[in-house]
Design brief:
With 450 residues, this protein is an alpha/beta fold. The chain contains 13 helices and 18 strands.
Amino acid sequence: MSEQFADSLGTIYFITLGCAKNEVDTDRMRSLLLSAGYEEACDVEEADVAIVNTCSFLASATEESIEATLALAEEAATGVRNLKIVMCGCVPSRYGSELPSELPEVAAFVRTDEEDGIVAVVDRVLGRERVEAPLVPQVKRTVESAVAYVKISDGCDRFCSFCAIPYIRGRYHSRPWSEIEAEVRDLVAAGVHEIVLIGQDTGIWGEDFDEAVTGPGNLAQLLVAVAEAVRPERVWVRVLYLQPEGMTDELIAAIRDTPEVLPYIDIPIQHCSARVLKAMNRTGSEEELEALFARLRREIPGMIIRTTYLVAFPGETYEEHEQMLAFMDRIGFDYTSVFAFSPEEGTRAEKMGDQIDDAEKLERTQSAMDLAESLGFAATAAHVGERAEVIVDGIEETDEGVELIGHAWFQAPDSDGAVHLDATEATVGDIVEVEFTDSFCYELVGYVVE
C-alpha cells in the first residue's frame, strides 16, 4: 500500500476483451495500479473503478465492448457503490473524439498509447490528489498462469485494405530487447513455463531500429536471445502472427535449430489468390505460398502450421473461394481460423464495389469452416498414440469427477484445443509427459506417464 495515503486508495476491477495483446496491456495497467497503492477487486460489486480494456478489430468486437461497458453502467446504477468506469484500449483509440457524448456513463477514456498514465487517470476519476506524482515503477507482470504473452512490437505499417489496426494502434514500432529480456526473465523467475511472443507483425521485429542498436536486431536473433535467457529453466518459446514475407532463411534456421523454440508457426495468409491478395494490399500468390509451406515442413521436422482465411472479400469470385478451399485442403493446415469479411469503418475495403451479400457470405464461411474443422480434427486425431509434454493449465469439475486441463506444445494456448487428463499428483503449472489415447474435435484425452 502506498504511504501517500493513510487509508486504502480504492479497488479496481478489470475486464479484458479481444486478443492476447489486450491481455498484456491490462496486465501492465494492473501492475502500475497495484504498485501505486490500489488493490484489485475480485468482483465488480467490490470495486470503486472498473477498467474495461476494449477491442475494436471488427464492428462486432466494438459492439461487444460497448455492450459490456453499458452493462457495467447499468449494474453500477443499481448498486450501493459509486462505481466509476474507465474505458481503455482500441475503442477509445479508434473513436475517441465521439465517445464522451455517446457514452456519458464513462468517467474517462484512455487510448492504447495513453495506458502507461492509468494511475493518474484513476486518481482523477476518484478525486484524489497526490502530494507528488507517483513514480512509474519498473512494470512487473502479475501473470499467475504457466503461460505468459510478451508483446515484442505494436502497431502496423501494412495497411491491408480490410484492416483498421494501423488506425487504432498506429505505425509499427519494435519494443527494445532490453525491455523484452527483463520481462521474460521476471516471468520465468515467477514460474512461467511458456513464453508466447506476439505483435501485429512479429516477423519484421527490429527493422525499425537504427544502426546503433545493441543486442538482437531481427526476429531470428531475438528468438535465439530469448531461448538463451530461459535456457536454465524448462521453458517453451512460441512466436505468433508471422507474415509470409517474414519467413527468412535465418528465421527458419533459428526455429529449426533452437530447442526452446517450438516448431509452430502462425501465418495468417488471408487468401491464396494473387488477385485477391493484391486487392487486400497484400503480396504473394498461390505458387509462392505453396512453396513456402512445403519448405517449412521439409526443413523443420514436425512443423505445425496455423493460418487464417478471410472469406468473401469484396470481389472474391466463387471460383476464387473454391481455389482457397482447394489450397487449404492441399496444404493440410493443422489449424485454420475462418473470418467473414466485415466492412470496417475507415478502411478502403469498406467502400469497395462488388460487396458480397450476406447470404452468399454465410454460405462461403460455413463451407470454409467445415473444411477447416475436418482438417483440424484429423490433425488432432493424428496425435493419438503419441507421447508429448503438456503444460497443466487448470483443474475442472466434471460429472465424472476432477480432471486436469492442459495444452501440448502443438497447441497454442487459448486457440487450438486442450488436453484432458485424469487428476493426478500434478498441479497447475507443471509440465508432464502425456500419452494421448483419444481425441474429439480439437481436444485430446491422455494420461500422465509416470
